[in-house]
């Protein structure tokens, strides 16, 4: 569908490799940070490995890739947009999600600080915060009918999100139609957070 897109395959936990790959791929005007892991464990059973991996992917990688791209935008004097994919879990505690909820909350605050500091350079930064999305990761963590029913019952629209629901929200935030929006979190949660 998008022949101009060239994917890069890099371990985001490897800062040097990420720096080299992303720097060589620029310049950029738009960035969507969407990499994430959901290593679900009860609070009392959280392992160091799960915590470190979650922080590497869900938080540190966003910070690092955004730094690389924002520096390029500033050096070239071009306006830009960064959208970070967060989660409804940044706003509401979920059982077995201690690390995931925490990394997504940290991502929301990082995005606000980025919006404040990058705004004078004409770089907008926002998050989208979806409910469960029917991706491979979503299916793995929400395939138990009893578990998924409990979550769906808390969503006024009565369903999980589809990939297009999130993509369309991201496209809006990347577009000039949201030219005055920065530092915001766009909830794509079917009303979960108001229930």
UniProtKB/TrEMBL annotation:
Keywords: NADP, Oxidoreductase. One of its GO terms (molecular function) is L-xylulose reductase (NADPH) activity. The keyword S-adenosyl-L-methionine does not apply. InterPro entries: L-xylulose/Carbonyl_redctase, NAD(P)-bd_dom_sf, Sc_DH/Rdtase_CS, SDR_fam. GO terms for biological process: glucose metabolic process; xylulose metabolic process. The keyword Oxidoreductase applies. PROSITE patterns: ADH_SHORT. Homotetramer. Belongs to the short-chain dehydrogenases/reductases (SDR) family. This is DER reductase.
């Amino acid at each position: 569908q998008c022949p101009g897109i060239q994917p890069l395959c890099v371990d985001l936990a490897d800062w040097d490799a990420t720096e080299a790959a992303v720097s060589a791929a620029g310049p950029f005007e738009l960035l969507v940070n969407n990499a994430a892991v959901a290593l679900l464990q009860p609070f009392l059973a959280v392992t160091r490995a799960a915590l470190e991996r979650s922080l590497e992917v869900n938080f540190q990688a966003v910070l690092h890739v955004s730094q690389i791209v924002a520096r390029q935008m500033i050096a070239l004097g071009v306006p830009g947009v960064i959208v970070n994919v967060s989660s409804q879990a940044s706003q509401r505690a979920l059982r077995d999600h201690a690390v995931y909820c925490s990394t997504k909350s940290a991502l929301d605050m990082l995005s606000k600080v980025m919006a404040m500091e990058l705004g004078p350079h004409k770089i907008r930064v926002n998050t989208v915060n979806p409910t469960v999305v029917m991706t491979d990761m979503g299916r793995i963590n929400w395939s138990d009918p009893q578990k998924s029913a409990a979550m769906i019952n808390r969503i006024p629209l009565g369903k999980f999100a589809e990939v297009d629901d999130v993509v369309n929200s991201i496209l809006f935030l990347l577009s000039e139609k949201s030219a005055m929006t920065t530092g915001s979190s766009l909830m794509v949660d079917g009303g979960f957070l108001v229930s």
